Amino acid sequence: MQIQENYSLKNYNTFGIDAKARYFVEISSVAALHAILQLDRGYPAKFVLSGGSNMLLTGDLDALVLFINIKGIEIVSETDEYVRLKVMAGENWHEMVQWTLEQNYGGLENMSLIPGNTGTAPIQNIGAYGVELKDRFVQCEAMAIASQEIRSFNKEDCQFGYRDSYFKNAGKGKYIITSVTLQLTKKGHVLNTSYGAIETELKTARVEPPTIQAISRAVIAIRKSKLPDPKVLGNSGSFFKNPVINKEAFKIFNSTHPEAPFYKVSEQTYKIPAGWLIEQCGFKGKRYGDAGVHTKQALVLVNYGNATGAEILALAKHIIDAVATKFDIAIQPEVNIIGN
Ligand code: EPU
């Protein structure tokens, strides 16, 4: 384990922000994580980094950055119908999904091409095209930062919600997830093609009946058409969450904006696509220096090259204010803002 000083994080966050870590160390095993957490004297606060796909760095980090790069996929149990996989935290999510599809394991196909690593997937309960991590989740293991003990969290412990979990709330900053166990199907795959765009893609590809691999290809095609590739254009996926508003607020909103898309979440709550709200405020495709709003999906903020985290954050605040003024709806970042 080599501890580096004043280390640039530009290649470790998908926004491509050039912030520096006071100290940086790559962790490739659970034992190494245990060791570094025990040896904390002399170092400032710790900061956990993995895929760096859901964060905005707004300045240098006066911290010991722990880059979690623990690899491995293991079958922990299986029957004729299903398989349970223990995936170590540092496995790239999309590569892991593609591997499961090569084995003909079903369940993750709708979540193809989501950036980031597997260990951070439970933190915000990643999801796409009608499926969320929680739907395939069995348990995860995490090391308590204070005691270095490994604790198992089942689905209930994780308190999953829409882009939300225990690890974003009461458990924030207390644990480092080391592995995630998922349950997938080996046969009788349950296909989720309810998202209109998937059906259209499958029809174009003329795959009949659809397979899990074809759904994955459809999802990849849809995502590529809307979402920028972080290797080409720095971004963190959806920058904001879709706001969920109560029935009364929805009635007012819907009567003044009958053309707006919405999803009914429950009898009392409705979700409004933040991308639509932002586009209506005129931000889609706008660029302010190197910070901008993606041309094809207004929910995604982008770094055209040398934007600072502070510039992206200023743009985000500007958007939040504009949406509040025009629609009286508060939108919130989905990404973690790191720094001031
Ligand atoms: N829309 C606009 N203008 C825009 C963008 C969207 O009018 O610029 C409208 C669309 O026309 C559509 C609606 O908003 O009617 C929803 O758009 P879309 O299907 O693209 O999905 P989203 O709600 O913007 C969410 C997730 C994505 C996920 C997709 C598909 C959140 C915050 N985002 O986006 O997740 O891939 O659904 O399931 O829930 C992410 O979390 O990083 C992410 C990319």
Attribute tags:
340 residues; alpha+beta; Uridine Diphospho-n-acetylenolpyruvylglucosamine Reductase, domain 2; Uridine Diphospho-n-acetylenolpyruvylglucosamine Reductase, domain 3; Uridine Diphospho-n-acetylenolpyruvylglucosamine Reductase, domain 1; 3 domains; 5-stranded antiparallel β-sheet; binds uridine-diphosphate-2(N-acetylglucosaminyl) butyric acid
What's the level 1 CATH class of the largest domain? Alpha Beta
Number of helices: 8
Shape: globular
Q: Tell me the strand percentage band.
A: 25-35%
What's the arrangement of strands in the largest beta sheet?
6-7-12-10-11
Radius of gyration, Cα only, in angstroms? 20 Å
> What's the CATH topology label of the largest domain?
Uridine Diphospho-n-acetylenolpyruvylglucosamine Reductase, domain 3
Bound small molecules, by name, code or SMILES, are: uridine-diphosphate-2(N-acetylglucosaminyl) butyric acid
Describe this structure in words.
The protein is of the alpha+beta class and 340 residues long. It has three domains: 4-68, 2-Layer Sandwich (Uridine Diphospho-n-acetylenolpyruvylglucosamine Reductase, domain 2), CATH 3.30.43; 73-226, Uridine Diphospho-n-acetylenolpyruvylglucosamine Reductase, domain 3; 234-338, Uridine Diphospho-n-acetylenolpyruvylglucosamine Reductase, domain 1. The protein is 25% helix and 28% strand. It is built from eight helices and 20 strands. The chain is globular and about 60 Å long. The protein binds uridine-diphosphate-2(N-acetylglucosaminyl) butyric acid (EPU). Uridine-diphosphate-2(N-acetylglucosaminyl) butyric acid is lined by residues 128-129, 226-227, 237-238, 241-242, 261, 273, 275-276, 279, 284, 297-299, 334.
